[in-house]
Design goal:
- This protein is of the alpha/beta class.
- About 45% of the residues lie in helices and about 15% in strands.
- It has a single domain, classed as Aldolase class I (TIM Barrel).
- The protein has 14 helices and 14 strands.
Length: about 400
């Protein structure tokens, strides 16, 4: 086995804008079960992939309501959307917006580049810019998309190590990936195949790269169809525990990341299908089955992963579905409404409810202050506005 030189440690003295910190500091608190000055049961920090300003607003509102540690992630396609086709412009616009919102927050939040690669020329450009604008980056060098195979371990370590050497001295946490995750999250994140993470390669990877956050592949998938309806996607929790033992022996501050961890809620699908029925013109017949076919990752298994060191769980698809279901409901309620702000409020409040649901499920509440609602009474209900949903949880 090759012996690697010691990689640079993460600079923990770096100070960012008001109430903004690097992702690793928040997620390590979750792994250690820290809330306020107390230590308890480990929990997880959902990384919400935000693609619009509505997503940012909803996430920030949810963090504030629950006193949660906040983590917002940006895919390459989301950054293109924010930046009018240019990811670097998108980084500047989105990060500046979050900085302004964070100044008025009573919680701590972090920003993260999702699936940044350091292999292609374009990928390098985005990663370098993300180190300047965000507080955490993912160096996903695990897949050779051109040849549809896993990247050679030596190359994966080399590329990822370069990002660590650039980011860690600046206080920017780095996430790496070992193994290939199947499925499609968006046009910039997809793979037709998957591979499990090898324990032997895993040991070499964490030693050689120095990453403190790592996404091993243990059976999760990207996208809205993680199997067949009625079937539960089986995760290799035993492998997760084996990898956790290796990571903790090397550095107990190592964090595991679960990609493809969206939980698709039946009530959201039901609400969307009923809204399609109200819209008529055969809308439910045309699109209803697609909603019925959506399959997410079983939450009971995600909870098992949290016990195996997975303290960052990536969430995207379920929030997209919530947004769309809420939009369909709004159009079905009043198809002649021409006040765009009304639709904006409907969809943003629905996203906030979705974020609240996942934060509560993950145990990420009461970290920075006591929740403003009774978490045991909160019910995720798209037929209710946010104010009414919160009132029902008092």
């Amino acid at each position: 086995m090759k012996t690697y030189s010691k990689p640079p440690v993460l600079n923990k003295e770096r100070r960012f804008s008001d109430n903004i910190v690097n992702a690793h500091s928040l997620i390590l608190k979750a792994k250690n079960g820290e809330k306020g000055n107390q230590k308890g049961t480990p929990y997880a920090v959902p990384a919400f992939n935000v693609t619009t300003f509505q997503g940012i607003n909803a996430a920030m509102d949810a963090f504030e309501i629950l006193g949660s540690s906040g983590l917002m992630a940006f895919s390459n396609s989301a950054l293109k959307h924010f930046g009018f086709g240019d990811q670097v412009t998108g980084l500047e616009i989105a990060s500046n917006y979050i900085e302004q919102r964070a100044k008025k927050s009573s919680t701590k939040v972090s920003t993260h580049l999702d699936h940044g690669d350091y292999i292609s020329e374009g990928g390098r450009k985005v990663v370098k810019a993300a180190v300047q604008y965000l507080t955490s980056v993912m160096a996903d060098n695990s897949t050779n998309h051109a040849e549809k195979k896993a990247t050679d371990l030596k190359d994966n370590i080399g590329y990822t190590r370069e990002v660590v050497e650039m980011a860690h001295p600046l206080g920017i946490s780095v996430e790496g990936e070992l193994g290939v995750l199947a499925g499609e999250e968006d046009e910039d994140t997809k793979s037709e195949f998957s591979t499990y993470t090898s324990p032997e390669e895993f040991s070499q990877f964490i030693e050689g790269t120095g990453v403190l956050m790592i996404a091993p592949t243990i059976g999760t998938m990207h996208g809205p169809n993680k199997g067949k309806p009625g079937q539960v996607v089986k995760l290799n929790v035993e492998l997760a525990h084996e990898l956790l033992g290796i990571a903790n022996a090397f550095n107990p501050d190592t964090i595991f990341v679960a990609h493809g961890a969206s939980t698709l809620y039946p009530n959201v699908s039901d609400y969307a299908i009923k809204s399609l029925e109200k819209l008529g013109a055969g809308m439910d017949e045309k699109f209803g089955q697609t909603w019925k076919n959506f399959v997410g990752t079983d939450w009971n298994q995600i909870q098992g992963l949290i016990g195996a060191g997975f303290a960052k769980i990536n969430t995207d698809t379920e929030n997209r579905q919530t947004f769309l279901a809420a939009l369909l409901g709004a159009v079905a309620e009043n198809s002649a409404k021409i006040d765009i702000r009304w639709y904006d409020t409907k969809t943003t409040e629905a996203l906030t409810q979705s974020y609240l649901q996942k934060l509560i499920m993950a145990g990420n509440y009461g970290v920075w202050h006591e929740p403003k609602i009774n978490i045991n009474k909160f019910k995720f209900d798209l037929s209710l506005g946010l104010k009414d949903a919160m009132a029902s949880a008092t």
